[in-house]
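Supplementary Note 3. Input sequence used for the single-chain structure prediction.
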Amino acid sequence: MKIIKLLLVTLILNSCALKTGYLKFDRTKQDEIIATVNIKKFMASHPNPSIVLRVPDGGGSILGNDNNSLIYNAIEKELIIAGFNVKDRGLFKAVMDKSKSSDYSQINEVTKTDLILELILPDTKQQYRTNRFYTEDDEEIIFNDREFNRDGLEIDFKLILVKENEYGGSYSFYYAPCEKKNELCGCKVVYKNYTPPRTYPQVNPCRDKNNNTAY
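The predicted structure, written as discrete structure tokens, is reproduced below.
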């Protein structure tokens, strides 16, 4: 009898143990890429152009001074991986301040920079909602009385050919949270397999020391 009771207790405990699932969101918008004929010709003839990232800070600075530095660094890293010669924003600004020139052709001559990639203020509050999550075995579980909310990201760029002082194109990229199963940034769900299932808060491992989202 004691063995039977022990088996029953073990069965109950195992059935109520905390389990891990995951959220998944689909993007509501598709990326938009507009490139001029001249930028296409330039890129074809310059496989490793120099580029500087101009970021918004409310004062037109090339440096930026806000909580999006993680995003800026990630963009510059991707540019390097893609083969661009990325100019240091701080050094670029110092040269610009010293030359005191607003003529793009002179900027090209002084800084040896071919392109400026101007980043419009990123929208980090593209909210996504869902009332479902998935178990590690990819079983879908739907709630009738609650939703999960996560923030996505929209990033818009304008590309400038410096020497020609010419518009090269505009680019909009959209990122949905938890697009992939193994993402960690707030995508895990801890739950117990009750009827209906009960979920519990999961600490977001993708926050920096200032509690900003690390994309």
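The longest helix spans residues 2-15. Residues 122 and 155 are 5 Å apart (CA to CA).
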